[in-house]
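Course assignment 3, question 2. Fill in each field.
Student: A.L.
Task: Predict the tertiary structure for the chain below.
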Amino acid sequence: MKSLLPLSFCLIATISTGTTLAQTSIAQTMESPAANSSPVAYVYVSRPTHVGGFAASSSGKLTPVPGSPFAHIGLSHMSVTKKFLFGAGNNGGPDCSGPDPVCSFNIYTYSIGSNGSLKQVSVINPYKYSPNECYAVGPTQLDYTGTTLYNDAFNCDGDDQYVQSFKIEANGDLQFVASEDSGNSEEEGFLSSVALLGNDRYGYETGCDGYGPGFEVVAQKRESNGALTSVDIIADQPKGKTPEDIYCAKGVLAGDPTNHLAFILQDTNNNYAGQPVLASYTAESNGNLTTTSTYENMPASALTYIDAMSISPSGKLLAVGGAGFQLFHFDGGSPIKSYTGLLHSSETFLQFGWDKENHLYALSTTNLHVYEATSTEVKEVSGSPYSIPEASSVIVLSLK
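Answer field:
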């Protein structure tokens, strides 16, 4: 099986060099800032030529923050701490499509003002730490302490896949710590982006064996300096109905606030026939993964494919997205349970964000949907969705 991940990252450069887009109708659909209201979160959405920043009220209403939209480069797969926003983007060089590709991606750091505004404070080219390779970079993500930034790096020729670790300095600069080879290539089947446990002990990547159907999990242990180093683990495969039922771990993975993971699996029997199913895993102290999920209790998704997955800060809800999105009940290592049906099936969903006031921000290529989501009720808030054409990434900074 050949993944399209490297192509999608290489396309960042092509997208980012487009002409400036006119501001859309999003500002017209948002309420004016209330004089005495305090936002519960800042929400940032990237587009080809700029980033939009919004303050979310306790009701889920969005208001542009001062200076938004910010005329930066287009960013991909943003990450955020209380002080800084990070994202990978094109540095103005050529893309990865030529016969002799030149690395043209940087990781940018922006400070976040007290009112949610952004200002660029630092930039780093990850290529300089791997001079013999040309990388398409991103997604970027943080450990749960907010002290280390991780960058998924792909060789544009499809030779290798890495995870780079950077220490976040007090001024937002990134200090390179280490680069760890995931041990996979295009021929072997590229893996998912690394997902960290909420306890910051291990990171995991999943995929299918490129030489045939197979269940594949790669693990990295987080060291005291933030670096990830590969370790050998055992990951149980859910029991199938027959011995021929071998599950492929699709390239999307999500962790909860403690030591659990959600997997997307598909039965390789009959040429991957059937809907994707969802499995929960528990990470032991040595990194091994155990599961109580079986063919009898794994819920099937209404989606034919899943490109995005995220667990809420409470650890109780799981969002999955592709052509539409839906929510599931999540309860640590217990089997995942169905919740909603398929929502907004006419839209392609890219990413999810959450705040700590039970708001889910579901980003499609055309709209940002804001939902109030709890274990007992899911409803779209007043004013949602907000039209944001050509959106590519969303990140939420919860202020509560």
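Instructor remarks: The CA atoms of residues 55 and 340 lie 27 Å apart. The chain is about 5% helix and 45% strand.
Grade: pending
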